[in-house]
């Protein structure tokens, strides 16, 4: 029995935390949040140099060859620091290419995706909230026509993995030349989204599983959500220890103390849930889909709850744009809704658990 | 990351399983002599009373949480008797091992371990619940005896116990926490009156215990005069935490799924209803989070690492889980939740048995530190928020 991170995993997590601590103080975070494209070249380069962008890319193609659990504990830190940028779509696209592209495509893209020199993304949902592979209608075989909604950073992407009919995946290279991007006012400005219209866009089939790609995204969102929830609580505790009213720090008032204790007890066990979902993704195939759905539903729901409680615990200051807690509040909404809502994934948990079958 | 117990422990599991198969059958469950004999054999084999020295009737094994867990799993699945469950084994024996005089250990531990005597816990009083250190039951030394006057409450199974360990104020002039002694006393004496309390379930497992010049010998004190508070804290430290904790709720959830399968909504099994599924999956999220959280805590403890503030949260987490399970169970059993479960000969208890789980979940929110006390502990020890100005001990 060893359900704990290895020393290497802890060290990796710490090093990413230190990098983000240095690169991303709250002033800098809000600058990027308010910037035109929500993508900071210096931060991206630093993440690439640390190896964060190629964690799961095999070593032959310039990555580190690690597993989902490693990527998830790193993603927790990105969530904790509210790291803005195209990380999520980039990691997912890299994974899909690792699993399912041909050798030439891998040679062409993976080494540059690993460093961050090239940017990848995934285009999945078509109609509103249609994130599931069985809901996709776009079809090849060699060119795509139609629209994908809410795609992360498509305008900057060099390569795009597209979900198509039958739960298949296709690869669009250099999409800037062949798709039309309609930017959207993203609520979570740390993750910019846009609609993408394909017009006779050349695309190549990939052999990999769209369901596995979906599960990867669900685990990463759960990990991000745990980090974000933890940050909201840390900020509220810091504030409760410094803000004074009625002649004492407000953290001494039982009303606030109990509110924050409830948040802590609500979120802390979720750490182990996303760990196990990531571990199941790597090593327990029969549990992987169910735990990915369960972790996504549970942890992102906890994140939104924590963000709401902690915003309220701060009082008026947290209702301002200048105070950065709203960055996590909005990130929580993104984590909860992107790739499908809580109730949708809970329905999937019920199906995947076989609860309706005789016990 | 490795969730298996490893080859050494699986070999140990085989050994335990063979032992249980050789020495226990389910028919033995109704035979007290067979139960006692099995416990003796299991102790000789090193499976029970592992942290109690052999000279006191234990098996004196090195601490090994995983072995203890394997034993627990194998005994439970065969429904074989584990250690005697009571305050004597659970609380008094560890306290005596840590703080008791040698004669107290020799006289009290062996019969307690053999199940010949059990102990009532004399802590709470009508005026001392969460604020336990405010106990007012007085102990006065007269000659070579303590004369005890006052009242204890919430005393589980006092009517079945021979002895009590009690927090008694012996130093009335000392500060609150320094005026208490940890006394042992015989409940079978004229100065003790035990009155059962009828609980909200209709059953009576708690009592009030009244002391009216009750007596106990001078040397039936554990630790020194005025040290009772520290001695009682040493006992709390031994209360079982961590692993095994999630098992109860996994079992409850499995039963909840069965209720959802047999109950109907709109002419179909309730478990096919999307709202029921949503709520089940919400509970499953909390449940699996807690389950893996206990695995994480266990793994870190085994490696000598501190799991951090999460250890202060476990009780509130399971309290919330029990509450959610109770709420959904009531909806699923429907009108059966309008009934009080009545246990009388000739009366069959149906789905209303879930109301016991409902009341039980409420009991857990109160017993052993109410949920609000837990929130103080989480806030102060876990999050580092300022201590309560009232000086409440958390």
What does this structure look like?
Chain A has 359 residues and is an alpha+beta fold. Chain A has 3 domains: 7-115, Butyryl-Coa Dehydrogenase, subunit A, domain 1 (Orthogonal Bundle), CATH 1.10.540; 120-208, Butyryl-CoA Dehydrogenase, subunit A, domain 2 (Beta Barrel), CATH 2.40.110.10; 211-353, Butyryl-CoA Dehydrogenase, subunit A, domain 3, CATH 1.20.140.10. Chain A is 53% helix and 13% strand. Chain A contains 12 helices and 9 strands. A 4-stranded mixed beta sheet of chain A has the order 1-3-4-7, with helices on one face. In chain A, a hairpin with a 3-residue loop joins β3 and β4. In chain A, α4 (68-80) runs parallel beside α7, α5 runs antiparallel to α6 and α10 (285-314) packs antiparallel against α11. Chain A is globular, with a radius of gyration of 20 Å. Chain B has 11 helices and 10 strands. Chain B has 394 residues and is α+β, with helices and mostly antiparallel strands. Mean pLDDT of chain B is 92; it is low at 239-244. The longest helix of chain B is centred in the last third of the chain and has 29 residues, at 274-302. Chain B has a 4-stranded mixed beta sheet with strand order 1-4-5-8. A 4-stranded antiparallel beta sheet of chain B has the order 2-3-7-6, with no helix packed on it. In chain B, strands 9-10 form a two-stranded antiparallel sheet. In chain B, α1 (7-23) runs parallel beside α3. Chains A and B meet through α7, β9, α8, α9 and α10 of A and α7, α8, α9 and α11 of B.
